[in-house]
Description:
Two copies of one chain form a homodimer.
Chain A: E1 5-8, H1 10-14, H2 24-34, E2 41-47, H3 59-66, E3 75-80, H4 83-92, E4 96-102, H5 105-112, H6 116-132, E5 136-142, H7 155-167, E6 172-177, H8 184-197, E7 202-207, H9 214-223, E8 228-231, H10 251-260, H11 269-283, H12 291-294
Parallel strand pairs in A: 1-2, 1-8, 2-3, 3-4, 4-5, 5-6, 6-7, 7-8
Helix pairs in contact in A: 2-3, 3-4, 7-8, 8-9, 10-11
Amino acid sequence: MTDLLLHEVGPRDGLQMERSVVPTDVKESWIRRLMTAGVDIVQVGSFVHPEKVPQMADTDELFRRLVTQKDRTVTLSGLVLNEKGLERGLACGVEMFCMGASASETHSRKNTGMSTDEALRRIIGAARQALAAGVKVQVSVQSAFGCGFEGPIAESRVLDMVGEYLAAGLANISLADTAGHAHPAQVERLYAAVRRLDAAVQCTCHFHNTYGLGMANIFAALRAGATSVETSFAGLGGCPFTKVAAGNVATEDFVHALQRDGLRMDVNLERLIGIARDVAAHFGRDMQGFVHKTGPIPSGGTP
Amino acid sequence: MTDLLLHEVGPRDGLQMERSVVPTDVKESWIRRLMTAGVDIVQVGSFVHPEKVPQMADTDELFRRLVTQKDRTVTLSGLVLNEKGLERGLACGVEMFCMGASASETHSRKNTGMSTDEALRRIIGAARQALAAGVKVQVSVQSAFGCGFEGPIAESRVLDMVGEYLAAGLANISLADTAGHAHPAQVERLYAAVRRLDAAVQCTCHFHNTYGLGMANIFAALRAGATSVETSFAGLGGCPFTKVAAGNVATEDFVHALQRDGLRMDVNLERLIGIARDVAAHFGRDMQGFVHKTGPIPSGGTP
């Protein structure tokens, strides 16, 4: 767990769910602070059609403002859903593309208008194009642990999709629990199976906290070899195209937990808490995260 | 995990924290429904001084009403803090005594007016008296994972206390995360160490969700051999004598998670959800639990 990567997805997965559009300047200020907090990757936005998700309409503009910042190790990622998004992302300086296809046919059709097979084929094409352009790529299997429309998703289905990614030379793979259906034993089983396909695979996890299992699932994924974790400031988030979805694990809660164990002490937890508090104040409602409300455990350290 | 015991502590640990006193008839109706929901133990109340915690003043009366119920496998437990509480509990038919001492000197003194050593000596005496009277006993180490006043608690301190319990013939032992400081790696380490002291020990876990780690800690404890889990309806709870405390893991959330894995399918989840909804409606505010709000995952089962 010492090489664990922290991927903050709040500016994308958090803000895309909000009714109100956050002004670009406000987003920029939050992201600039995230960029100095010690997380490894910040997901700036999504290259979705601006009319479909107006909350993400300024993604290109945000990248143009942010990528010029020097003296940093943090990577700026962007979500793309199709070739058009890839074009936009390449044009504005995206440093890591996140893209994926859903293991659920129904979710895939509702989200993209395509079957899973077609979406997978097109995503693999776009991902290889991005790699060829010299940009990092992470590919995902959405609804990997169950689907709000279809219910259970066969693990073999998920592993087949992972196998296709690996065969295409895409070895940075995320399993996303879009509907929040995952439970720890399932998570551990599936990540272990992915690593059996290829021990060198970079495994990312993305859990929604719909049924209260987000944090438990992260720890199960880490146990089975996940190397990167996606979380959201203050616990904001969800997916607009699933039936029920409620929140991600809060970044500051997860970092707080890691630091209780002496891990990722390089991250500036106070800064993350400050950002989460400002995000909560901006929306003016109770957020799902804990530590931005309680503050960190005062004594620090572990027994 | 198939022999996992479910101990519902909402009527005690949940209600003791509420400003308003729940009428005895309402408590009785909730507990009677819990008694038919498939959980193994229900904690009816606490034998604390009625002026100190008026929410628990009707504990004796509740036991008198409930213990006469025939045809049940569920055990009715009660928390006692001292010899006086034990007397009261023996007189009204408690079927399982829960008692404990804090590993934190400061917490012990604030909670009981005694040092840890004195509290431990007196609890062991009371526990042996209860056993001699033919009643089940569970003894606990409170603040086992850290203290809101003192900060870190040495693991050796906790293990010494467990060793004293074991030496006194008390083999049903709970580690309580009173302040919510535990993290999964610590939990797994400590439960494993307890089981190394005595592999036959019955280990219970009790985690507060103050920093968002309650559910993750439960799964860590189960992995290390915990055999009983204390949770609270709707996620109500905390400890009135610690500085910061917020909620337990919700019983229905935990059972929902177990049943996603095919475990404890004997428990009536719908009934637990109904109780949690009524508890939430009674207090009229948003509760920490998830599943009583979302409902269970519709499809059931696992991939």
